[in-house]
Amino acid sequence: MKRILNVIVSTALGALLLAGMLGPGQGTKNDSENEMRGNIKRVGMIIGIRSDKIEEYKKLHADSNRGVRDLLRKYHMRNFSIFLQQLDRKWYEFGYYEYDGADFEGDMARLAAEPRNIEWMKLCDPLQLPLPGARGWTEMERIYFND
């Protein structure tokens, strides 16, 4: 398991999720043309989560909690999913979404400026543990896709 995590971490790219998690000039612009298939950008991300905060995080993301679901749709983020996994006594979240808009950076900046999203991030960020060198979720390099 540790080897799997090391592979994920070593291939992960600094990126932005829900904008504002990385400042200007941080992360990478990983060949958006290579990541795009038609109008779909597929994004996989990883971040740690505090083991004592997992239940709180699950409640925030429960189907019954409105959260920022409508904002994600407004800014063209579809099929947003978060998965939880323990590796070597540490807990990690894997996130996935598909972006189907035409201006990824612009949409992420607009989402980051939404007051309700700002408040949402204030609730979620303290529960998570970014990977070394990251400030939030770390985007992973997509190496395979089968439609």
Question: What attributes characterize this protein structure?
Answer:
147 residues; alpha+beta; Alpha-Beta Plaits; seven-stranded antiparallel beta sheet; 7 strands; 32% helix; globular; disordered N terminus
How would you characterize this protein structure?
With 147 residues, the protein is an alpha+beta fold. The chain has a single domain (2-140), classed as Alpha-Beta Plaits. The chain is 32% helix and 28% strand. Strands 1, 2, 3, 4, 5, 6 and 7 form a seven-stranded antiparallel sheet that branches. A hairpin with a 2-residue loop joins β4 (77-87) and β5. The longest helix is centred in the N-terminal third of the chain and has 10 residues, at 2-11. The radius of gyration is 15 Å and the shape is globular.
Care to give the gist of this entry?
The protein is globular and about 40 Å long.
